[in-house]
């Protein structure tokens, strides 16, 4: 099932909602073309926990961490990663053991991630409109009442 995000506001709302229903050790793979809204979702997600208005895209560096309460969010962007094994130099092992992981452009390291990972797939980009699909933990979809479905 796909949800429809009609504008930037919807996408931010989606990111916040995802944060609200996330578990402290979830792994979210944010997939979609350049400019589809991966960082926008990550930003809204992180903002929910940290109230941090200065969340930048981690393209350089490829990892930014955010600590809050007793947990940590690991925000990765693998767009510029050339060799999957380089991700171990970016604390992936530690990240897998502790905290929430958000990964933009996860494809290159997907085989290194456990099965519990949840895919967030952004598509059908038309001006300000996008669709988003959640794959992995199907019951999460029930939580998105109020969003339009395709
Ligand atoms: N419904 C929408 N959801 C998300 N972004 C939108 C939407 N409508 C328009 N935009 C615009 O699209 C852009 C999305 O940028 P964002 O950095 O989130 O994309 P990204 O997927 O992280 O790209 P990249 O692959 O370069 O990391 C922003 O400029 C934003 O204003
Ligand atoms: Mg981005």
Account of the 3D structure:
It is a single chain. With 150 residues, the chain is of the alpha/beta class. It is built from 3 helices and 8 strands; from the N terminus they run E-H-E-H-E-E-H-E-E-E-E. It has one domain (2-133): Rossmann fold (3-Layer(aba) Sandwich), CATH 3.40.50. Helix content is 21%, strand content 30%. An 8-stranded mixed beta sheet has the order 3-4-5-2-6-7-1-8. Helix 1 (8-20) crosses helix 2 (38-50). The longest helix is centred in the first third of the chain and has 13 residues, at 8-20. The protein starts with a strand and ends with a strand. Adenosine-5'-triphosphate binds next to helix 1 and helix 2.
Please specify the SSE layout and strand pairing.
Layout: E1 2-5, H1 8-20, E2 27-31, H2 38-50, E3 63-68, E4 71-77, H3 92-97, E5 100-104, E6 118-126, E7 129-135, E8 148-149
Parallel strand pairs: 2-5, 2-6, 4-5
Antiparallel strand pairs: 1-7, 1-8, 3-4, 6-7
Helix pairs in contact: 1-2
The chain binds adenosine-5'-triphosphate and magnesium ion.
Runs in which pLDDT lies below 50 for 5 or more consecutive residues are none
Class based on secondary structure composition and strand pairing: alpha/beta
| Radius of gyration computed on alpha carbons | 14 Å
Widest sheet, order of strands: 3-4-5-2-6-7-1-8
Question: Termini distance?
Answer: 7 Å
| Element-level helix/strand string | EHEHEEHEEEE
Percent of sequence in beta strands = 25-35%
Helix content: 10-25%
Report the major sheet. 8 strands, mixed
Write the CATH architecture name. Answer: 3-Layer(aba) Sandwich
| Bound compounds | adenosine-5'-triphosphate, magnesium ion
- Give the mean pLDDT: 92
What count of helical segments does DSSP give?
3
Which outline best applies?
Answer: globular
CATH topology: Rossmann fold
Oligomer: single chain
What is the CATH class designation? Alpha Beta
């Amino acid at each position: 099932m796909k949800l429809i995000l009609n504008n930037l506001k919807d996408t931010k709302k989606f990111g916040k909602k995802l944060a609200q229903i996330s578990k402290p050790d979830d792994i979210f793979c944010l997939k979609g073309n350049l400019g589809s809204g991966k960082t926008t979702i990550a930003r809204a997600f992180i903002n929910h926990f940290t109230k941090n208005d200065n969340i930048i895209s981690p393209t350089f560096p490829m990892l930014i961490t955010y600590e809050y309460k007793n947990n940590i969010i690991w925000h990765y962007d693998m767009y510029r990663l050339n060799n999957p094994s380089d991700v171990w130099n970016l604390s992936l092992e530690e990240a897998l053991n502790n905290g929430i992981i958000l990964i933009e452009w996860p494809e290159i390291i997907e085989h290194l991630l456990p099965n519990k990972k949840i895919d967030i797939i952004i598509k059908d980009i038309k001006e300000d409109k996008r669709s988003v699909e959640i794959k992995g933990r199907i019951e999460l979809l029930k939580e998105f009442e109020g969003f339009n479905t395709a």
